Every structure is written in structure tokens, then in C-alpha cells.
Amino acid sequence: DTGAHGGSVDVNSETSLELLLRYYGSVGRSVYTLFMSITGGVDWQDVVDPLTAVHGVWVGLFVLYIAFSFFAVLNVVTGVFCQTAIESAMRDQEEVMNDQKHATQVYIDQLTGLFRDVDHDKSGELTIDEFEDLLQDERL
Question: How far is 38 from 7, CA to CA, in rounded Å?
């Protein structure tokens, strides 16, 4: 028996024909079978066996479909992982820079306060006497 598929179906094997009709009996069933194949709903071997009864080309196309789908999904997952890692690294780098800026500002504020405290005449400049007092200060 030959059909539109271009090959022959072994009609003596009723099981192959039944499986072929179950998995590929209509466009809707074929799409459903392909979906189930890539989402783990059905074992690949179960849906490939009926195709071998038709022609090896269909088996090859099925394997290409699975490979394409698998690598497309793998590529998306890898892309999402890499993007998340890059964004996380950027946030970490920004956090480190902000922490360093904050620490620098705290250090500047402490030094400014120390010099302001030692500048007894409030001139904005340290005299030798004020500097010597600063050297004796425990905070330094």
C-alpha cells in the first residue's frame, strides 16, 4: 500500500499501522505527538517505530526536529543563564564601587572633623602648634 508519503506501509503489521494512525493520523495528532516528544510526554522510540515502517526519511526528519528543538531550548536556557550572571556581576561591581565611595567619604569626613577639631583659631589652616597638638591626639 503506497500513499501520499511516498513510501509503503507494511499493512500486514497491524500494530505499526495502528501506531502510525494514533501518533500521525491527522495534522493535529502529528503536532501533538511532536509536542509530546520534546516535552517528555512520550518516549521518542515509541513515536519513531511507526515512522520506520513508512520510510527512513521520516525518521531522519523526526530526529532533526528533536535535535533542533533540543538545541534551541538549550541555547535559550544558556542565554538566560549567561545574561543573569552578567547582570549579577554588574550589580556586584556597582555595589563594590558604591561601598568604596562610601568608605572614602567616611574617611574624608573623619579627617575633616579631626582637622576642624584641632584648628583652635578656626582659621581653616593648621599652625605648627595646632599640628603638634594633632600629633599628640589619640584619634590620629
Answer: 26
pLDDT tens across 51-109, in order?
Answer: 888 888 999 999 999 899 888 888 888 988 899 888 888 877 788 888 899 889 988 88
52's CB contacts (< 8 A; 6+ apart) are 59
Q: Give the count of alpha carbons within 13 A of 23, CB side only.
A: 22
53 in Cβ contact with 9 (< 8 Å): yes
Whether the Cβ atoms of residue 9 and residue 62 lie closer than 8 Å to each other: no
Answering whether pTM is above 0.90, one says no
Strand partners, 53: none
CB of 53 closer than 8 Å to CB of 13:
yes
What is the rounded distance in angstroms from the CA atom of residue 137 to the CA atom of residue 121?
17
pLDDT digits (tens, 9 = 90+) for 119-128: 778 887 778 8
Task: Please answer whether residues 127 and 121 qualify as being in contact, where contact means their C-beta atoms are separated by less than 8 angstroms.
Answer: yes
- Cβ-based neighbour number of residue 105 at 10 Å: 10
